[in-house]
Amino acid sequence: MKLKVISVSDHQVGPVSTTCPHCGNKGTFETIGKDLHVGGHFFCGQRVCPDPECRGHLFVVVKDRDLVFQHPPLRIAYNKQNIPVNIVKTFEEAVTCHSTGCFVAAAIMIRRTLEEICEERRATGKDLKDRIKSLKSKIVLPQELFEAMDELRILGNDAAHIEAKSYDQITKVEIDIAMEFTVELLKALYQYTSLLARMRGLKKTTP
Ligand SMILES: [Zn+2]
Questions:
Q1: Measured in angstroms, how far is the CA atom of residue 5 from the centroid of ligand 1?
Q2: How many domains does the chain have?
Q3: Which one has a higher pLDDT value, 95 or 40?
Q4: Which of 8, 84, 87, 144 is least surrounded by CB atoms within 10 angstroms?
Q5: Average pLDDT, the chain
Q6: Does one domain contain both 122 and 175?
Q7: How far is the CA of 9 from the centre of ligand 1 (A)?
């Protein structure tokens, strides 16, 4: 995601427009104190979330008009409701790796998330490939998600071994898509049913 800086002066970088890593809302982050000119075109400083209920702090490094670094980093947002604790714990590590640019580690943790899903659904088999096959007889999912699971498994395998067999490289592009697919998978497995129950709960009872 391209992060936008509102304005830059010679001595002070202005507010920064970005998504808050604390509350997940987009906003224009005000400057706290003075930015420090650290050489060349680089400034660093602190910003605060404009949401009065958040006011989360952000450390930023800005080069010209580009925000080149922020801490805490942006994390992909997903709903954790009804997802088993072990699966959330593993996937959270994938999210952390992804947010800090550790893409090979993220691919390995996504693969481990699949392992956790298979275990939770009691899918058996000699390896993950077999367990995903066995999962097909236990759960109903769109065919595309089953195929995505297989791709995520292969990506994770390549990440774990020095000699990659299927994917030439594991970079942000591959992991952005893999994260998106994993979130869709978690939604389909753990959240559609409760969403439907909530919808039905709003229906008038038939006489
Ligand atoms: Zn915030």
A1: 17
A2: 2
A3: 95
A4: 144
A5: 88
A6: yes
A7: 25
Burial class (CB in 10 A: 0-12, 13-18, 19+), 142: exposed
pLDDT band at 206 (very low <50, low <70, confident <90, very high): low
DSSP H helical ranges for the chain: 85-99, 103-120, 128-135, 143-160, 172-190, 192-201
pLDDT score of 13 more than 70? yes
Torsion of CA 188, 172, 111, 157, to 10 degrees: 140
- pTM (2 d.p.): 0.78
Is the predicted pLDDT of residue 9 greater than 80, yes or no? no
pLDDT score for 186: 94
Cβ pair 111, 160 in contact under 8 A: yes
Q: How far is the CA of 52 from the centre of ligand 1 (A)?
A: 8
Cα 97 to middle of ligand 1, angstroms? 21
C-alpha 64 – ligand 1 centre gap (Å): 24
Distance (Å) of CA 47 to CA 31, 56, 61, 72, 195: 5, 8, 11, 11, 37
Query: Domain residues for 41?
Result: 4-71
